[in-house]
């Protein structure tokens, strides 16, 4: 039986980092579930909910990761996951919302307040400020679960708010799984 463990790594960003981590976990027989990776300035963050063979356990997994040269100086957290690893009804995104343009103080707060007002759940959030060479654009990407009966109105409110701030707004509906397909 597999253990459900959270692996969280914060370390200097470098080429091959995801490959080194994923290769090591694969070699140990670890199955990745929900996983994210992000560059954060000159650092990088990797987080994954993992199914780990009992023979390895949390301590063995941590020791193996600490031995990777790519993770030298990394903060590595490996702990048992005590929640239900299956996604809840609001844990799967129904829409992706991209807002881009000039950096706006409080933008994420304003947009997340609108989403809350309409009963939306933020499943993922990614915000990046592009370098000055790329025009200094700020790009925010929300993956959200929206109640079907409020989605259209919520998305209109998001678009109106972005427009009033001189920002571009794009929405993509995430295809739902088709039972039996």
What would you say this structure looks like, in words?
- Helix 3 runs antiparallel to helix 4.
- This protein is 25% helix and 38% strand.
- The mean pLDDT is 91.
- The strands form two sheets. A four-stranded antiparallel β-sheet has the order 2-3-1-4, with helices on one face.
- A hairpin with an 8-residue loop joins strand 6 and strand 7.
Topology:
Elements: E1 2-12, H1 17-27, E2 31-40, E3 43-53, H2 57-66, E4 75-80, E5 95-101, H3 107-117, E6 121-129, E7 138-145, H4 151-164, E8 168-173
Antiparallel strand pairs: 1-3, 1-4, 2-3, 5-7, 5-8, 6-7
Helix pairs in contact: 3-4
List keywords for this structure.
Alpha-Beta Plaits; four-stranded antiparallel sheet; 4 helices
Number of domains: 2
Largest sheet: 4 strands, antiparallel
> Count the helices. How many?
4
Gyration radius (Cα, Å) is 19 Å
Tally of extended strands?
8
Helix content: 25-40%
Name of the CATH class of the largest domain: Alpha Beta
Q: Tell me the strand percentage band.
A: 35-45%
Mean pLDDT: 91
Order of helices and strands: EHEEHEEHEEHE
Read across the widest sheet, the strand sequence of neighbours is 2-3-1-4
Low-confidence stretches: none
